[in-house]
Structure formats: structure tokens, C-alpha cells
């Protein structure tokens, strides 16, 4: 049978990994796919680097559109990234009748609805396992393995850079800025780490998982996004003393009235498996009504882990290449005509519990003032921890840290409480607020 011919747009870290793994494991991949899969054309602006990466027998060009225009190419793999030219090329490939594989979470989170609709109209597939959590097959798990379930919630450590930083802050007691510099030196963080440390990368991935879990359109603009830049070593230490660890989580939940979609630092009980995921590793927990809790763990980035996901998509498309489009797995798990208009709730309507840290004057009555404000708004307290003044600011200091854990309350109500507490003359610094999830 004639091999499936693949055109690669971009031969950087993931592209070269894809080429190498496909070549190394060609025999087993062919046995699984039912026919050979060959990368026969590569487009990259750095033609010399591309030629060095793929060797003889592969056509190398500097124009991605030449790959799309080649009638021999069956599948186009987009590994350029970003929202700009990548979007144009993916839509052009679809219009040309090519199947598309992409690792571009930003593109799908923002423009996925348009891209999937174009693919549906043309009868081609867009596969994107590599777009979320690198080598972990979480898209296939949500879209196929858990298809019998009503998904209740998904929570994931889906950005390795931030997890590495938080792990180092906890292990070494260092502040964020110090660890960020170390992460950049070791290559875990980019020179411009904004997308990672501000939570944007994780939000792209959470948006895609939310759409698949609940059969709703991708709606990145509705996601609440908060990064780790304001976390202090003190909060990580206090969380540990209370039996929690702080992780940057992407969370999506089905609740009465809609869907929650949020990314933020989160206190997780230390006994949960996901709380013990360290370094640059990723993990996703899915709660389904039939299966219960399932955990998916592995490398979320890197050349060959991500290539593993890209090639899995190539195999899926090869198997289904000649299938009736109506019999293929839908892009977002649900049939396109059955997508729901379930709204994504504003953050003010989200209900969760909280960790609060207040730097306060060390004098009588302060705790009563603070708890009085919480009680007045119906916010129930779970635990209180007060650090002695000499532990915070030296012997004889006139201030102390007050740590409060609350029971579940609405975010909007907590915002009101924070505004009232911050206005107290005895509260001496901005209040630290971190959301808490039991993930039970």
C-alpha cells in the first residue's frame, strides 16, 4: 500500500524529535497504522539546519505553502506555533484537502472553533494530542477513553516551567525571582517566560480540555488566568505546615449554571497524588461519574515526548484516512451539531475555599476584627494559624502573620471581604489570597 506522505512545517525541537522517532520506530509504527508513514517534505526558514536534521531523501524548502500545494502530501504537521502565520497555513492546508496535525495550543484555544468548522466542512481531520501535556495522551483519554462518563471536573499541572519553579521554591525556601533566574539558566524557562509564569500557556491547554470534557466551543477569552509571580516563599512554607502544597492548576468544572474555567495557584492537600508531582513533570486528574478519579502523569514537553503525541495523531489519521468523515471521532468529542451552549461562569461566581495571609499589627483585638468581617459575610473559617512576631520580622517586632483557611464561599463574596479587611488600619500589607481545592 502506498505510504502516507507527511509534510512538516517547522523542524525545531519537536519537529526533529518527530522525524527521529518516526524513523527509529518505523517498523512498529507501520504495523500499528497498517501502512507506512513517511515525512517526505519539510519547510523551514533555516534550510541548512533542516537539511542537516533530515538528511537525504527528504525535500526541504523555505516556503510552507509549497508543502501545502504539493498534491502528494496527505497530512500537514504544523509545528510553527503562535496565532499568526500558523493560523493562515492551517486553514490553507484544510482548504487544500489535507489533514492537519498540530501541537499549537494557543492557536486552537483562540481560533479552534473556526478551524474545526473548516475541517468539518472539508471532511478532513485536525489532530492535536501534542497541544496539551506533551507526551501524556490526555486528549485521547478525554475524547475516547472516558466517553461513557459525564465528566465532573478536570484539574491539571499542565505547565512544566511553573511546576519546576514551585518545586524549587518549596525545596529550597527561595523566592520566585531567584528560582526563575535558575530555571532560565537550566533551560526550563524561556528568556521571556511571560506565557508560562502568568498562566497563559496553562489556560490555553485548560480551554482545550474544557471544550472536550463538556462539549462546548473553545472559549479562551472566558478563562480566568492568574500566574505565580506574586507567590512568596512564606506562603509555600505556611501551606506546607497546614498540610498543603501550592501548584499552578488548570481547572475546569461542571457546576450548576455552567462551567468553571480557571488557572491559578492552588493549595492542594499534600496527600493527593497530584500534589507530589515535582519538577517539570505534568499531571492531569479527571473525575468522571462512572470511572471515578483517574490520573495521567508524564513529561509535558520536550522533543521526543511531544513527538510521541504527534506520531500518535499521524497513526490515528492514517487508520481513518479512508473512513467516512461521519464515522470519525469528533474534534471536541461530541458531534459538531450537539455542542452545548453551557456558559463559562465569570470568576466572581466560582465557589471554592481559600487560604488568606494577612500581615497585621501584633495587638489585641485584631483577630476578632478580621473574623468579624468574615462572619458578617457568611464566610466560615476552617483553620487559623498565627505566626509569632519574632518568626516574621525579628525579635520584638510589632507585627505578625495571620493565616486563615476558609470553607467554600463564592469568589465575589471573598472579594468583598478582602476589600473590608484590607481597609483595616491594623492590616499592614496587601493580603495574600490563594484558592484551595480538595480534589476529592
TrEMBL record:
Binding site for L-homoserine: 190
Top EC class for this record: oxidoreductase
Metabolic or biological pathway, per its Swiss-Prot or TrEMBL entry: Amino-acid biosynthesis; L-threonine biosynthesis; L-threonine from L-aspartate: step 3/5; Amino-acid biosynthesis; L-methionine biosynthesis via de novo pathway; L-homoserine from L-aspartate: step 3/3
CDD domains for this protein: ACT_HSDH-Hom
Alphabetical list of SUPFAM superfamilies matching this protein: ACT-like (SSF55021), Glyceraldehyde-3-phosphate dehydrogenase-like, C-terminal domain (SSF55347), NAD(P)-binding Rossmann-fold domains (SSF51735)
Active-site residue list: 205 (proton donor)
Positions of the ACT domain: 355-436
Binding annotation for NADP(+): 9-16
Record-listed E.C. numbers: 1.1.1.3
Keywords: Amino-acid biosynthesis, Methionine biosynthesis, NADP, Oxidoreductase, Threonine biosynthesis
Binding site for NADPH: 105
Gene Ontology MF term list: homoserine dehydrogenase activity; NADP binding
GO biological process: one example: threonine biosynthetic process
Protein name: Homoserine dehydrogenase
The species this protein was found in: Malikia spinosa
Lineage: Bacteria, Pseudomonadati, Pseudomonadota, Betaproteobacteria, Burkholderiales
Amino acid at each position: 500500500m502506498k505510504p502516507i506522505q507527511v509534510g512538516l512545517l517547522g523542524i525545531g525541537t519537536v519537529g526533529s524529535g518527530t522525524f527521529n522517532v518516526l524513523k527509529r520506530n518505523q517498523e512498529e509504527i507501520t504495523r500499528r497504522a497498517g501502512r507506512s508513514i513517511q515525512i517526505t517534505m519539510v519547510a523551514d526558514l533555516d534550510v541548512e539546519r533542516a537539511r542537516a536534521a533530515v538528511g537525504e531523501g527528504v525535500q526541504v524548502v523555505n516556503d510552507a505553502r509549497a508543502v501545502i500545494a504539493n498534491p502528494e502530501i496527505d497530512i500537514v504537521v504544523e509545528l510553527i506555533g503562535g496565532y499568526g502565520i500558523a493560523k493562515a497555513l492551517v486553514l490553507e492546508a484544510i482548504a487544500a484537502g489535507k489533514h492537519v496535525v498540530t501541537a499549537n495550543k494557543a492557536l486552537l484555544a483562540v481560533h479552534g472553533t473556526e478551524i474545526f468548522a473548516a475541517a468539518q466542512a472539508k471532511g478532513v481531520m485536525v489532530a492535536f494530542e501534542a497541544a496539551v501535556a506533551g507526551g501524556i495522551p490526555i486528549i485521547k483519554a478525554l475524547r475516547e477513553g472516558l466517553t461513557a462518563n459525564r465528566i465532573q471536573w478536570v484539574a491539571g499541572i499542565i505547565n512544566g516551567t511553573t511546576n519546576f519553579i514551585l518545586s524549587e521554591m518549596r525545596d529550597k525556601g527561595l523566592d520566585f525571582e531567584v528560582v526563575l533566574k535558575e530555571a532560565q539558566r537550566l533551560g526550563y524557562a524561556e528568556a521571556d517566560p511571560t506565557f508560562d509564569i502568568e498562566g497563559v500557556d496553562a489556560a490555553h491547554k485548560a480551554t482545550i480540555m474544557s471544550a472536550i470534557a463538556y462539549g462546548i466551543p473553545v472559549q479562551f477569552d472566558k478563562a480566568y488566568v492568574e500566574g505565580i509571580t506574586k507567590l512568596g516563599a512564606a506562603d509555600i512554607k505556611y501551606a506546607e505546615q497546614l498540610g498543603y502544597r501550592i501548584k499552578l492548576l488548570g481547572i475546569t468544572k461542571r457546576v450548576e449554571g455552567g462551567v468553571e474555567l480557571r488557572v491559578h495557584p492552588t493549595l492542594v492537600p499534600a496527600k493527593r497524588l497530584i500534589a507530589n508531582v515535582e519538577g517539570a513533570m505534568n499531571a492531569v486528574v479527571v473525575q468522571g461519574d462512572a470511572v471515578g478519579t483517574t490520573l495521567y502523569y508524564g513529561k509535558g514537553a520536550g522533543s521526543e515526548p511531544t513527538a510521541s503525541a504527534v506520531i500518535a495523531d499521524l497513526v490515528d489519521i492514517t487508520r481513518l484516512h479512508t473512513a467516512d468523515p461521519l464515522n470519525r471521532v469528533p474534534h471536541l468529542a461530541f458531534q459538531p451539531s450537539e455542542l452545548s451552549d453551557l456558559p463559562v461562569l465569570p470568576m466572581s461566581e466560582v465557589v471554592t475555599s481559600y487560604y488568606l495571609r494577612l500581615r497585621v499589627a501584633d495587638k489585641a483585638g485584631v483577630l476578632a476584627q478580621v473574623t468579624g468581617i468574615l462572619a458578617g459575610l457568611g464566610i466560615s473559617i476552617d483553620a487559623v494559624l498565627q505566626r509569632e512576631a519574632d518568626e516574621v520580622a525579628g525579635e520584638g517586632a510589632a507585627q505578625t502573620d495571620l493565616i486563615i483557611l476558609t470553607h467554600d464561599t463564592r469568589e465575589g463574596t471573598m472579594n468583598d471581604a478582602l476589600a473590608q479587611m484590607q481597609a483595616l488600619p491594623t492590616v499592614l500589607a496587601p493580603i495574600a489570597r490563594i484558592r484551595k481545592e480538595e480534589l476529592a
